[in-house]
Amino acid sequence: MDKMDQMVTYLPKFDREKLPTIASITAAVFVVLYAYKKTTATPKEDEVPKGLKPVPIAPGRQFLFGHLLTLGKRPVLQLQKWHESIDGPFFKVYFGARQIIMINDPQIAHEIFVQRGAFTSSRAAHTFSHNIYGAGGRGVVIAKAGKKWKNSRTLALDILAPKFVDQFDDVIIKETRTAADALIRVTETNGSINPLKTLQLATMNIITLTAFGERFPSTDDPMFRTLVDLAERTLTYAGIMGDTGAFFPKLGWIDVISGRRRKLRGFVKEFRDKPLAVLIDRARKSQNDCLVKTIDMMKEKHELDELDVTIILSDMIVAGSDTTAVSLTWAFAILVRYPEIQRKMQSEIDTFMAKEGRLPRYEDRDQLPYTISVQKECMRYRTTTNFGVPHVSTEAFEYRGYYIPKDSTIISSMYSMHRNPAVFPNPDKFDPERFMSNTKSMYAAANGPLENRDHYNFGWGRRLCPGTHLAEVELFNVFVSVFAKSTIEPTFDAQGNPEYPNIEDVKAGGVVVTPVEHQVRFVPRVL
User: Where heme is bound, by residue (predicted)?
Assistant: First the structure.
């Protein structure tokens, strides 16, 4: 019997209440030993070939923890400082044992993720997202590159293509107009509102109507609340900072002893597998057209089984509902400070309505260039995700004289990219005019040449968000519905002074960053 077997046999003799203390002490010992080994040995993959340069390392790296303790409360701010001070196209940070290459230049991101996408499009191993949620690599968003991922992504691209999404245009319009009315109604009843939940209901209903053929009547609906929890908690658990096993791989067993993995598996079972099984079954039995039936007709062609279908639909809920609602919440928190910009959008919408006798639809977007520019500037000014989902290289390669090892984690820093003055002059100024010369659709911009990109929230290359068109149609219709009917105004304190949302701080949510708690007012327009 080896020492590990002896330990496993001996553990049950302890009082279970003492296990957390024992685990903590044991973890500390193993962390130190592991870190010592990592810092005294040079892995073969880090050996830089002759004639190439290593990726520069950010200052402040510490024994054992790497840069984890030097990042501060808002890591993006420290990373931004390093982007500005380090000489080179990128730099490397250490999160414990994990080495991460950070990019803030879209040209470099394009060259690495698009032009070299054949070997820079995989994902990192992650205790939750890959092993538990992804069942070892299924799904679209977080699966490693491979045949299963390619088949799932091909299916997702088919069912989320513009010609397919546009079949549900009336559904999207109805839900967004319902949301606009609700924002006004709650403001009139309560005096103000945090719009996030109302927007989540709209974006979730759009996903569930298109996917399953059913919707939820209110934010109090039990199934709606379950799916919102699924989306929010999945995005939290899947964040790069939420996987200590990736920082110290030799200590992954602590998650088992502490019960964390069991809890994560329980979460997936209760909040994803069970409710989606109900929704999928009802969709198959209903008379409504929906994506479930389309997927059923296509899954054999793409060699996908029932678990693949569940995870693909879950990916749509997680990536397609919460992120869009958060983007809109940011937009409204920003625009409450700019009444003159709201008036210009309203004037544009009013002019269209006077001419056509109806609200604009997405197909009319070319007649609302200023409104389109405001949407784009909102997404640049406050990004929904600081880092997106990391890419991983499946082979070593050279880039501009630097050596990038195999299995490198590579991140495009969305926060820093959108504040890169070489790309966006005067980046701290909220200025929709900067996009008036590029009002083509975000879908076209994201899938076109680099010089036509407007922002980078939808990712890069083979990992570009397949739901880009759906998200853009939702954003457009919410903007039109809200600003045709209302103006967003601040609340007031006891002395009658306006209180604006704090858009300098964020509520961290793993992959997604949300505005901190705030209230605004949706005041009906007097036409």
Answer: 465
pLDDT tens digits, one per residue of 26-73? 455 554 454 445 443 444 446 899 999 999 999 999 888 899 889 888
Q: What is the 3-state secondary structure (H, E, C) of 192-223?
A: CECCHHHHHHHHHHHHHHHHHCCCCCCCCCHH
Task: Write out the H or E segment, with its range, that includes residue 475.
Answer: helix 468-485
User: Residue-wise over 448-473: b if at least 16 C-beta within 10 A, else e?
Assistant: eeeeebbbbbbbbbbbbbbbbbbbbb
φ/ψ of 140, rounded to 5, equals -110, -45
CB 458 within 8 A of CB 468: yes
CA distance 527 to 524: 9
The amino acid present at 442, given as its one-letter code, is: M
pLDDT bracket for residue 250 (50, 70, 90): low
Contacts of 342 (CB under 8 A, 6+ apart): 335, 483, 487, 488
Query: What pLDDT does 418 receive?
Result: 95
Q: Output the six-digit token pair for 163.
A: 């010609």
pLDDT score of 235: 85
CA-CA distance, 291 to 212, in Å (whole number)? 7
Residues 144, 396: Cα–Cα separation, whole Å: 17
| Average pLDDT, rounded, for the chain | 88
Please report, as a single letter, which amino acid is at residue 111: E
Alpha-carbon span 495 to 337, nearest angstrom: 19
pLDDT class of 13 with cuts at 50, 70, 90: very low
Judge whether 217 and 189 are in contact, CB under 8 Å.
no
Residues facing residue 524 across a β-bridge: 486
Q: What gap in Å lies between CA 503 and CA 415, rounded to an integer?
A: 14
Exposed/middle/buried for 202, CB within 10 Å: 0-12, 13-18, 19+? Answer: buried
Q: Is 465 annotated as a binding residue?
A: yes
Report helix, strand or coil for 392: strand
Q: Pairing relation of β-strands 409-412 and 98-103?
A: parallel
- Select from 133, 468, 448, 431 the least CA-distant residue to 311: 133
CA 147/CA 136 separation, integer angstroms: 13
* Per-residue buried b or exposed e for 320-343, using 16+ beta carbons within 10 Å of the residue's own CB: bbbbbbbbbbbbbbbbbeeeebbe
Residue 314 tokens, joined: 């879950």
pLDDT value of residue 242: 66
Predicted model pTM = 0.88
The pLDDT, as a whole number, for residue 251 is 66
Q: Which domains are delineated in the chain?
A: 1-39 (no CATH), 42-524 (1.10.630.10)
At 329-358, the pLDDT tens digits run 999 999 999 999 999 999 999 999 999 999
Among all chains, which residue has been given the structure tokens 């045709």? 484
Q: Give rounded-to-5 percent helix, strand, coil for the chain.
A: 55, 10, 35
